[in-house]
């Protein structure tokens, strides 16, 4: 009966070590653990030996024990040799287990439940292996050997039947749900503070905000990617770091965060950040003092700052902002308003940044022009002669007489003024022409088709791109309001699996679909299907004229 029990314990240790090995090589996933010790042990310098995860050695030991115990009745002639081999492997594992348990108790002061299970398992196997060596050999008897084979098979089948589903459950149990983001008002107020740590181009159209925990293994593994991005986009991106120490998981994270803030007082925040992340396996106070010395900081000033807790209030404020934004994991990155979590490959990060740079570039120009229009002494750009002729011809055809735009100033409508970046979506004087529709733009629809889409409400979403005041004055029933100026930071809130129909007021020649086309172009540039992005060119006026439902 000892041998089946010995085999069962070996399988238990094997599955335990395999799970630990998996999470040690998947640092972005939280461990299923009792208490917080598992993450502390995983982040410690003892989690790897010679560059190999420590659980890998345990998996090798238990796997070898499974083979030795299982094969004994099949290789009766070498039974005694296999028993001694099993005893030797178990003795070595027992001694290593004592050493690792001592590290947890006296060095790390943290207990990993999975490590404790492994230690108890090898401790139970060791005396059983001794008893196996002391008992006389019995497997030379064919009947006894056959019975042992059957028992081993039964134990193995049961172990696999229980262990494999348990492993898959554990591997998926650690998956976190998507972040439920806070309101745009909260993002505007709390995502970046005026005194937040920033580097790169302070006037960049794209901002990357990292919420990090200096003891988080996944954060540490992501830092080479972050450093490469900081170097590559130094003149085009603003980088921001916010403190988010998860003290319930990482007890040394808060003190490490304070150390980085103390370094910031001496002008070395980013250097300290890279240094602490690179050596996060040891975040004790002596280690932090060594880091300060390596960075050339004033040791006395740094120590006084660290011991006094002078920077704790700043870290608490960052934590409050993180909770207000409903963040619950690290690392969390914001690329403008796009949120990403965990370890992100460099290629994926680069694609997102390049996409934001392309889409934000034109809107940065729009903001600049709008600011110029608000200045009383600002003169609008001169309209090219070709556009003047085209505009005059269109006005003459319609029987309208207007003054030269260069004399009267801009219309205030996107896409209707010379030099306006939105003119790439709609030429002045042409409105929503077929010529424009043939360009790479969202599909134009008239009232009949818009009404048909409206009747299929489950698959269509009408989006009013006018300012909020206009939307409140009346809009298509069920529509949502997303002013075109807010599209660069709010487009991701729109569903890709539904048909999006943009519209404006439609009450004047210039307020038909220029903004709608601009908004649609943003979605197309962000991967929305061209079939699902449409612009209702008759606008709210056409909708009301057809006596279709309107809300006020």
Account of the protein in words:
The structure is a single chain. With about 550 residues, the protein is of the alpha/beta class. It is about 55% helix and about 10% strand. The strands form four sheets. A five-stranded mixed β-sheet has the order 3-5-4-6-7. Strands 8-13-12-9-11 form a five-stranded parallel β-sheet. The longest helix is centred in the first third of the chain and has 32 residues, at about 140-175. It starts with a helix and ends with a strand. Residues about 360-365 and about 375-440 have low confidence and may be disordered.
CATH architecture of the largest domain: Up-down Bundle
Number of helices: 22
CATH C-level of the largest domain? Mainly Alpha
**What would you give as the CATH superfamily of the largest domain?**
VKOR domain
The residue ranges in which pLDDT falls below 50 over 5 or more consecutive positions are 362-367, 377-439
How would the blueprint of this fold be written?
Blueprint: H1 2-24, H2 37-42, E1 48-49, E2 52-53, H3 54-71, H4 79-108, H5 113-134, H6 142-173, H7 184-190, E3 197-200, E4 206-212, H8 217-232, E5 237-243, H9 253-264, H10 269-278, H11 285-294, H12 299-308, H13 312-324, E6 332-335, E7 338-341, H14 346-374, H15 385-397, H16 405-408, H17 434-437, E8 443-445, H18 447-455, E9 460-464, H19 468-472, E10 475-476, E11 480-481, H20 487-490, E12 499-503, H21 514-525, E13 533-536, H22 539-545, E14 550-551
Parallel strand pairs: 4-5, 8-13, 9-11, 9-12, 12-13
Antiparallel strand pairs: 1-2, 3-5, 4-6, 6-7, 10-14
Helix pairs in contact: 1-3, 1-5, 1-6, 3-4, 4-5, 9-10
């Amino acid at each position: 009966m000892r041998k089946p029990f010995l085999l069962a314990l070996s399988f238990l240790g094997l599955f335990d070590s395999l799970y630990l090995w998996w999470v040690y090589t998947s640092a972005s996933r939280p461990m299923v653990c009792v208490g917080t010790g598992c993450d502390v042990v995983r982040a410690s310098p003892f989690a790897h030996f010679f560059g190999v995860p420590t659980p890998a050695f345990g998996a090798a030991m238990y796997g070898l024990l499974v083979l030795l115990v299982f094969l004994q009745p099949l290789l009766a002639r070498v039974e005694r040799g296999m028993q001694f081999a099993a005893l030797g492997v178990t003795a070595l594992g027992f001694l290593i287990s004592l050493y690792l348990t001592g590290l947890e108790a006296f060095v790390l002061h943290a207990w990993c439940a999975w490590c404790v299970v492994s230690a108890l398992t090898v401790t139970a196997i060791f005396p059983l292996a001794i008893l196996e060596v002391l008992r006389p050999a019995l497997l030379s008897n064919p009947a006894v050997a056959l019975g042992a084979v059957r028992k081993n098979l039964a134990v193995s089948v049961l172990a696999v039947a229980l262990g494999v589903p348990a492993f898959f459950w554990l591997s998926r149990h650690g998956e976190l749900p998507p972040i439920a983001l806070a309101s745009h008002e909260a993002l505007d107020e709390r995502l970046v503070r005026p005194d937040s740590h920033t580097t790169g181009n302070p006037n960049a159209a794209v901002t990357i905000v990292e919420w990090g925990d200096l003891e988080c293994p996944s954060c540490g593994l992501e830092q080479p990617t972050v450093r490469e991005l900081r170097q590559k986009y130094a003149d085009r991106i603003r980088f921001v770091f916010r403190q988010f120490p998860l003290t319930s998981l990482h007890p040394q994270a808060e003190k490490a965060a304070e150390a980085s803030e103390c370094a910031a007082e001496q002008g070395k925040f980013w250097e300290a950040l890279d240094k602490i992340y690179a050596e996060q396996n040891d975040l004790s106070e002596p280690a932090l003092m060594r880091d300060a010395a390596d960075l050339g900081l004033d040791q006395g000033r740094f120590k006084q700052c660290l011991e006094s807790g002078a920077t704790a209030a700043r870290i608490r404020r960052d934590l409050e902002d993180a909770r207000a934004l409903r963040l619950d994991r690290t690392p969390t990155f914001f690329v403008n308003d796009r949120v990403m979590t965990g370890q992100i490959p460099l290629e994926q990060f680069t694609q997102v940044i390049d996409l934001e740079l392309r889409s934000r570039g034109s809107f940065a120009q729009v903001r600049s022009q709008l600011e110029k229009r608000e200045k009383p002494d600002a003169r609008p750009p001169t309209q090219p002669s070709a556009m003047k002729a085209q505009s005059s011809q269109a006005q003459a055809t319609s029987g309208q007489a207007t003054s030269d735009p260069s004399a009267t100033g801009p219309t205030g409508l996107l896409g209707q003024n010379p030099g306006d970046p939105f003119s790439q979506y709609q030429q002045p004087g042409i409105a929503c022409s077929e010529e424009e529709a043939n360009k790479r733009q969202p599909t134009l629809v008239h009232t009949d088709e818009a009404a048909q889409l409206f009747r299929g409400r489950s698959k269509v979403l009408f989006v009013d791109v006018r300012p909020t005041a206009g939307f409140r004055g009346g809009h298509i029933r069920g529509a949502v309001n997303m002013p075109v100026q807010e599209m660069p930071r709010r487009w991701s809130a729109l569903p890709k699996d539904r048909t999006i129909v943009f519209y404006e007021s439609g009450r004047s020649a210039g307020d038909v679909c220029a903004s709608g086309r601009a908004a649609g172009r943003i979605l197309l540039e962000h991967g929305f299907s061209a079939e699902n992005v449409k612009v209702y060119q008759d606008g709210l006026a056409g909708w009301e004229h057809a006596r279709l439902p309107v809300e006020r």
